[in-house]
Amino acid sequence: MATTTFAPPDHDGAAPAHLTPTDRVALLRHMLLMRTIEERAMTLYRQGRVPGSFYDGFGQEAVSVGAAFAMAAQDRLCILHRDLGAHLVRGVQPARILAQYMGRAGGVTGGRDGNVHFGDHRLGCVGMVSMLPDMMLVATGMAMAFRLRREARCAITWLGEGSTSRGDFHEALNWAGVQRLPVIFVVENNQYAYSTPTAAQYAVAPAQRAAAYGFPGVTVDGNDVEAVFEATRVARERAVAGEGPTLIEAMTMRMHGHAAHDDMSYVPPELLEHWRARDPIDRQEARLRTLEVDLDALRDEVAATVRAGAEEALRSPEPDPATATDRVFADEEVHLGDGCAPWSGWSR
Length: 348
Ligand SMILES: Cc1ncc(C[n+]2csc(CCOP(=O)(O)OP(=O)(O)O)c2C)c(N)n1
Ligand SMILES: [Mg+2]
Description:
The protein is of the alpha/beta class. 39% of the residues lie in helices and 10% in strands. Strand 4, helix 6 (167-179) and strand 5 form a beta-alpha-beta unit. Helix 1 (21-46) packs antiparallel against helix 10, helix 2 runs parallel beside helix 3 and helix 4 (94-101) crosses helix 11. The longest helix is centred in the N-terminal third of the chain and has 26 residues, at 21-46. The relative contact order is 0.20.
């Protein structure tokens, strides 16, 4: 099966047929929100208010936002450490995110973890397992459950290109391919796995490997949020029609260090320059100028939302130690949709 490169939907200036002007603004707003929250979180980290380390997705916003936006309310998302945008698309509020990062009671896990391992399953978000890329196996298992229950649902997981060197990557692709499962694998190819560049990581590009397991691998411009959306929308349609998985390789760049402690001195400055000129937020803003969107008002609204969210998060108390063993076992049957915040993704 040939590997295809997914054509950017706007190569002739047109948006994907499925995106309304409102959707296109929502994509920009989610990316702006992600960046603004992460900038605020970095300040809080430097102030010593974020325990542990801090991982961000600066410059990669289009990958999590674009892909999550294409998923339906009943789908499940296995979200990784640079994919804050996916939580935001599902409706997790900025105050809960920032409280999560600070280990406060108002965070998604109620203070049990920080910046990486969390997910509100009522919103279809599955908290990350640290061993990479084991979320591929979780997503594949969920897709198997959807198949056995004959549910028209799809699982999606993100993974870094560094994860593609692990055995679990191949096991997940193999089982998903054999069973033709409704699962989407989004490889976030940000050029580095910690300090290892892609040239030292693989001899065969991740998208090309899907062919070995009998399903399509597509390459997409990961800094084009509408292209990522469209590739994922097509993959989801294929998945719920029973046609099996898709691997999407989204080409992007990790613009910051591996985590806050890393000065990424090993990254050539000209590589960063190349990608800085392709910033996903700048690109979506440039597109929306034709829609007469008030971008200043949008930026102000996002800044105010994050400011208010940070104040609320800072007021959130430390967790009560007496609750430490709560939530270890499921004590209630939780149905997707119970207690959900309004979900803002594309669902037609
Ligand atoms: C099995 C395993 N080995 C090592 C690590 C430590 N680790 C966390 S992130 C990371 C780099 C991953 O690179 P990549 O998959 O490209 O994702 P990126 O961080 O670039 O998004 C490493 C080595 C881990 N979490 N799991
Ligand atoms: Mg990487």
